[in-house]
Amino acid sequence: MEHLRTPLLSLLVFLLNLSSLHFLSLADDYFINCGSHDNVSLTPSQNFSGESKSAGYSFSKSKAVEDINQLLDISPLYKTARSFSKPFYYQFNITKDGTYLVRLHFSAFSSSSSNNLSTAVFGVLDSKNFTLLNNFTAKNTTNSPVIKEFFLRIDIIDSFRLYFTPQPSSFAFVNAIELVLAPVDFIAENYTSSLPLHTIYRLNVGGSPVNDTIWRKWETDDSHISDQNSAKKAPFKNTQFRSLLWSK
């Protein structure tokens, strides 16, 4: 995880300035419903395709697993997964270099052919052997999907891989994968590092929770202000920002 620490503060600046960008390039865009042959729409413009051998990607030996509970209030995207007790990978054909947005979707469920996914402990690495997740578990108290987001520099190569590596006596899984080429001006021109960026927080300062045009979820900043009396919301040209109140 050391690889990810240095650029994190820079990413916050990029996101605050680029929240209104319009997406996307259709080159090398992948939306995969892992462990299923069915197509699923998570939002009107966020369409995940069932796994196919002719879709520009492939995956190594692993198992497709399905939720045995099939709760109606959960998206079908989170009712299937690809899982294995040994390292496995997804391999993607890449035809254009640039910065790619990668989202990994995890939702722990119980299946008839696998252990309860909430007990899985694993890591995720990319083709450059950067650690994206380490000793990761998708178990949470809200039963909501866990979505991990990264920005990766990928150069023109024959293929790009995401490796899922379980800890000893455990297994790895993933419910869905998004790999999307970002616009040319998405990352600041003076940012030349090849290190991956990991989104930790995304705050709509002074505003309400909102999803933008590239399906990023912006949280309110209320819970991150130590003294609520030190700032107030100030509407400005259809946007919101915080006005700081300074006292002598």
Model description:
This protein has helices spanning 2-5, 8-17, and strands spanning 30-33, 40-43, 46-50, 57-59, 63-66, 80-84, 88-92, 98-106, 122-126, 131-136, 146-154, 160-166, 172-174, 176-181, 197-198, 203-204, 210-211, 217-220, 231-236, 239-244. 6% of the residues lie in helices and 39% in strands. By secondary structure, the chain is mainly beta. The chain has two helices and 20 strands. The strands form five sheets. Strands 2-3-1-14-8-11-15 form a seven-stranded mixed sheet, with no helix packed on it. A five-stranded antiparallel sheet has the order 4-7-12-9-10. The protein has a three-stranded antiparallel sheet with strand order 5-6-13, with no helix packed on it.
Q: What's the shape? A: globular
Q: For the largest sheet, list the strands in their spatial order.
A: 2-3-1-14-8-11-15
Q: Structural class of the helices, strands and pairings? A: mainly beta
What is the radius of gyration computed over CA atoms, rounded to a whole number of angstroms?
19 Å
* Mean pLDDT value: 79
Q: How many β-strand runs?
A: 20
